Every structure is written in C-alpha cells, then in structure tokens.
Amino acid sequence: MKKYILSLVLLGTLFVSISFISKTGSNDSSDYQSLYFNRVQEFKQKQKALFQLIDESDLSNEMQIEKIRGAIQQTRVQLKGVDFWMRYLEPISYKKINGPLPVEWETEVFEKHEAPYKREAAGLTLTYLYLEEEQIDKTELKRLIGESVVATNAYLADSITKHIRTYHHFYLCNRLYLLNLAAIYTTGFECPDTEQVLPELLRMLKDVDQLYAAYNKSFPETALNEEYLSLYKRTIEFVFNQSNDINTFDHFTFIQQYINPLYVLNQKMILEYNVSSKSMVDYSLNKNSTSIFDKDLYFAQNPKGIFSRVSDTVALKEINDLGKLLFYDPILSGNNLRSCASCHLPTQYFTDTTVQTALQFDRLNRLPRNTPSLINVRLNHLLMLDGAHITMQNQAKAVLINPIEMGSTEIEALRKVLNCKEYNTRFTKLLKYTPQETQITIDHLTSALTAYYTKFSNSYAPFDEAMIQKKAIDPVVQEGFNLFMSKAQCATCHFVPQFNGVKPPYVNSEFEVIGVPGDKQFAALSADKGRSTIYTSDEMHHAFRTGSIRNATYTKPYMHNGVFNNLTEVIEFYNNGGGVGRGLTVPNQTLSSDSLHLTPLEIKKIVVFIESLNENITFEKPPLQLPVSKDKMLLQRKVGGVY
Amino acid sequence: MYFRNICIVIVVVFISVLIVSSCVSQKKIEYVFPDAMAKPIQEEYYRLSEKGRVLYEINCASCHTKKVKGKMVIPDFTEEQMGAYSIRIANEIHEDKVSEARVSAEELNLITYFFTYKKKNKQ
C-alpha cells in the first residue's frame, strides 16, 4: 500500500513539474516533435535508397536512368514533408539537399561583414539536372546524393532539434513558408520538371496541414487560430481545383485571396504570441509588416544614414530639405557644374530617359552604364549593378569622388558646402542629433541626400493596392502577371513582391548572367564584366544585380548599358533565350537559352502587368535657389547643374 | 553690500560644485592601445573608440551599464561576444533594440572598437 502511495506522489510531482514546464514555454510537444523526427528519418531513408539505386544502376541503360529519375521524384515528394522546417532551421544544409545551382556565390546581407564565398550545392534538383548530361559519371552522381544524406543529419543534431521544443520557430518557419509560396514555389524556381510543380505544391500544402494539426495539439496555448486554419483549408481546395498545368494556374488569385491573407494572419500571431527569433534567416524581415506587399516587408538599407535614430519630425523635415538642396547643388562636383540631379532627373523617375548612358565628367565621353532610377534603391542589399556598395551613403560618396562622374573629393566637397553660411548653420543645428560626431562630416551630407531621395520610395502601385486591399484589377494585368510567374519565367529572378533579385527570406541581392549585347545587332556581348570587377570569379563574369521592374514603364532605356529602348524589346530578348539564344558565346549564362515561345499578345499582356507596377509617386519641384557662398566662383551655381 | 558678497560666494561655490560633480560622474574612459601601434594610428583608434563610446551610451548603456558597489560599470565585452552581425539575434531583446534599423553595421563596428581598446574593469 505504502508503495502505491509513494508512486502516486511521485507521479503527481511528475505531472506538476510537467505542467510547470509547459507554462514556461517548452510544451509537451511530443506529437509535433515525433512528427518532425519521423519525417526527417523517412526522408533520410528515401535518400539512402536513392543512393543505393544509383550505386547498383548501369548508367548506360536509359531504362535504369529513368528508374533513377522516378526515385528522385519520390524523394523530392518526401522532402515536401520536411521542407517547412529545413529551409528555416538550417538554410546552409538545405542547399546541399536541394540547392538550385551547382555553385553559388553567397552575396548576402552578411557581406556587410564578410567577403562572399563560394558554396557548392548538391542534392535532388542538381542530380536530376545532371542526368540530362551526355556523359554521366557515377562518382559525381553519388556525390550529389551522398552529400545530401550527410546534410540531412544536421537536422537531427541537438542544436537544431532544441528549437522544435518551443513554439517560436513555428511561426517563423511558417512566415518563410508563406513567403516562399508567394515568391518561388509556384514558379518552377527549384523544380526542373515543370509538370511536377503543381503536384509537388499540393503535396506540400497537405503535408503542412498535418504539421499544423500536430503543432496545435502540442502547443494549444499558442495555437494557429481558426481563421487561419479555415483559410488554409480553402487554399488547398483552390490549388486542388486548378488544372495541373502550371501555365494556366491563377497565381494572382492564389496570392491575393489566399497566401497574402494567410501571411497577414501569421504576422498578427507573431506579435500576439511574442514570437522571438534567434535565427539569421529573420535578419531582414520586419515583424510589423502587415502584408507581403508592404514596402517595409524587409529592411535592406538605412536611408537616413548617420541620422538613423532621428524621429523628431521637425528635424526630419530639415534633413530632408537640406538633402534636397544638396541633391540639386552642383557644389558637390569638382567643377561646380554637375549635381546628382544632372543624371538622376527628378522629373524622370530619377533616371535620364533621353540618353543611353550619361556624359562623363569631361563632357565628351559617355559613362559605360545606364543611369539607374533611385526609386526603391532602399530595397536592395547591395547597391550598383555590380554590388560595389553596401550602404547608400558610401555609394553617394563614391560618385562624388569618381573622376569620371562628379570629380570632387570628400574634403573639397565638405569645405565648399560649409563655406555657405546657410548650409553651415543649418547642419550645425543638426549636430545635436549625432552626438558621436563633434563636427559636420561628409556623412552628414550624404545621409541628408539619401534621406531626401528615398522619400520617393514609399509609394504603392495599383498592383500592390489590388493585392493588399483584395481589389479587382484589369483582367489583362492578371493574365500578364500569371504569364510572368509561369510561362515567361520572369519570376524565377524577379521575385514577389518587389520584383527585384531579393527573394525570401530577403537577405541577399541576386546576380544573373543573361548575355546582354553591346549593341542591338548582337554583334558581341557587352564588354562590361559586371560583378566580377568587384569579386573575381568565373561564375560572376558579366553578372549584374537583378533590378526591380517597378516603374519600368518610365525608366527607359533598359539593361546595364541601356541597349534596349522599350519593354517589348526587353521581353523579346528573354523570349529568344538571352545572349546565347541570339548566338553569343556566354558559357556562364544563368538564363535558359531556349525560346519561351511567347506570342506577341502574351508579350503585350506582360507589358500591361509591368505598367500596373507604376507607383503613385508625387514628385516635387526643384528648389528655387541654392545657398549663397562666400566664394565668388560659387555664386554662379545653377540649380541642378548645367550638364 | 555684505549680503551681495555672500550671494556671489554662494553662487560661485554652487557652480564649482556643479562643475566638479559633473566631472566626477563623467569619469573619463581610459583606453589601452598596444605598444607596437604607431602614435598616429593610436590617435585614429582613440577617435573611433570615442565615437563608439557615445554610441554605446545611446544604444546599449540603458541595459548594460550596471551599478556595482555604488559605481556605474560598463561591461568588458570581447570582440568575440560582439561577433559582428550575430549580436543582433543574440537574444530576444536585441532582436528589436539592436536591429539594423536602429544600429547600423558601421556603428556596431565603432562600438566594437570601444570595447577592444577600453581599459578593462578590475576583477
């Protein structure tokens, strides 16, 4: 009897302590946890079986290769059950399991602190692509799968599995999952066989549905709410009722009616449950964004620079006004004849639509690259087409001192500016907002400049409004968007929602090699080496940072060298398979050289979609006059400069 | 007349107490630079470290400067603890307070200089 009482007491204490633990956040998550472990193990078994099959196969036999393809497909499907976790919990290992490219240069936001390094991927997508090669080497094939088996082990290590025991990771995994649903899962970005895109999508949606159920059972206090779950069920129905052809899938409705509203609900729960992150994956994402199409979905640049912590509205207005004066003031150039506004015309979306490339400082030669628009620059992690700069302020400094652009020096520019009494007193008054600085520096000037021009990057386009407010949109826009996301393959590089090269989790800016010619006759590849002028590597020869297509209607001419004059020419270029498609030799082109088979009508529709991305920006008139200087020479300055 | 003199004395004493006390509370931070470092470079790092100190006071001190035996003590964070960008996600509070939007990468660098060259606290 005593024994029974003792064990009852023991049991009781056990229960009490378990319930105590659950109150402190680490729930009894056995259901959810066992689902995780089971799925990772199952996936590993499939990978191992695939490895075995490759080992035993005769690679000269097409039937056996076909069998391998089938096994890869089965393994991919199995991956869908764990993808939700894997991508978030350990993105580096994930690249070995299902990397999209054989070699990637990590050009991430972390480049702000580290030089980029080469990362060789492995896994299912690459194995599948490798099977298409004429000569298949078994050792290489085994390496591609073998490495992915090893990488999977990372997900069983304690350092990763400890996250599964609390609820925090769940909402962050889910956020990434939803963003990927909007940006890449439906575009074929990681699925070489386009026929499999939708079946795989459906499978993943259902696998995650089960995962949700297990999660809610294990974490009832921080459960997904009913509204979310019912919308999620309807999302699955929506996909189920679509045809299996990716080219007729309604991407627009999928994102507008389902994925974006799910994202909104998930964001609310992140705040409600005080979800906190300890992962680099969340480095740039903003917990307070209220839509995927929120301009503050992620943080890439600090437009206010040295004034970043200023929140006083009067001071902010003053910074903005000073920035505007400087933007139009040729005092920043070596000869006092050129301002920022000389090339970035504020009346032309802060670019110059009248020339292919701008004049050099010498007024004779032309610059090698087209002037980019300054709108939405703040949404790039790396700036310039070659990614030379990581902050907007450094970029501004570089133009100032570039002998073929503005031809000044930091010291000269600062001296001349401070010689104007008005600038001097007004900047001095702002000094109290930068207590770390005892005097006005060039950074005060460049920070005012970037704060000023970034003001025009906060506007939304009709397409955003349709998405955010679930408003109807011109059916042609919708068709154009659907083409953009599927047949035309645009969205495999221009990612939702900014349609630039920044994809979920929005921590890096991507570079691509598309083979832009030096002239319209396609006589030769453009001589510009692009990214490889910054970091030498074969892969990066002629690579350029993917730009946004927002406001593109108004920012001609196009491409790094301004070679194309209208959007139809640009889309034709892609339709023909880029440079390689037009007979140029570009061994590292990252764009498929096959024709997209777009009809002229389809091209027209894509152009109409791009037009729906024109933002409702209110532009301003130039300042009437510039601050006077003690220096007589400087009294001649013209607002905006003369060339 | 006598009264006026007293008033002046009181005011002068008051002001000097104010000045002295502010000097005491703003005890100058001492820096230690490696002997091998050339003087001009030391001066440059001194300048950068001082910027870092101010940035530390603005962004970090409210949580990290703690009263120990009546004195305000700035911790001795190592370069490794500062760990470049990883510090942003070191804990839940940092996720918000040390986000990129609040403290830029350059500023974190300056704060790291401050910790690198600041004279370490007595154990």
Q: Ends of chain B: how far apart?
A: 56 Å
Large-scale geometry of chain B: extended
Could you name the CATH class of chain B?
Mainly Alpha
Structural class of chain B: mainly alpha
- The overall number of domains of chain A is 4
> What is the quaternary state of this protein?
heterodimer
Order of helices and strands of chain A: HHHHHEEHHHHHHHHHHHHHHHEEHHH
Low-confidence spans of chain A? 10-27
Architecture (CATH level 2) name of chain B: Orthogonal Bundle
Query: How many structural domains can be distinguished in the coordinates of chain B?
Result: 1
Could you characterize what this model shows?
The complex is a heterodimer of chains A (643) and B (123). Chain A has 4 domains: 1-165, no CATH class; 166-277; 305-458, Cytochrome Bc1 Complex, Chain D, domain 2; 462-611, Cytochrome Bc1 Complex, Chain D, domain 2 (Orthogonal Bundle). With 643 residues, chain A is mainly α. The longest helix of chain A is centred in the first third of the chain and has 27 residues, at 30-56. Chain A is built from 23 helices and 4 strands. Chain B is 59% helix and 5% strand. Chain B has a two-stranded antiparallel sheet with strand order 1-2. In chain B, helix 2 (39-59) packs across helix 6 (105-117). The longest helix of chain B is centred in the N-terminal third of the chain and has 24 residues, at 2-25. The model of chain B is unreliable at 20-26 (pLDDT under 50).
Write the layout of secondary structure elements.
The complex is a heterodimer of chains A (643) and B (123).
Chain A: H1 2-23, H2 30-56, H3 62-79, H4 83-89, H5 91-98, E1 103-105, E2 118-120, H6 124-130, H7 138-153, H8 158-164, H9 168-183, H10 197-218, H11 226-241, H12 251-272, H13 313-328, H14 340-343, H15 392-401, H16 410-418, H17 421-430, H18 442-454, H19 462-468, H20 475-485, E3 511-512, E4 544-545, H21 567-575, H22 578-581, H23 600-611
Antiparallel strand pairs in A: 1-2, 3-4
Helix pairs in contact in A: 2-3, 2-7, 2-10, 4-5, 4-9, 5-7, 6-7, 9-12, 10-11, 11-12, 13-17, 13-18, 15-18, 20-23, 21-23
Chain B: H1 2-25, H2 39-59, H3 61-64, E1 66-68, E2 71-73, H4 79-82, H5 92-97, H6 105-117
Antiparallel strand pairs in B: 1-2
Helix pairs in contact in B: 2-6
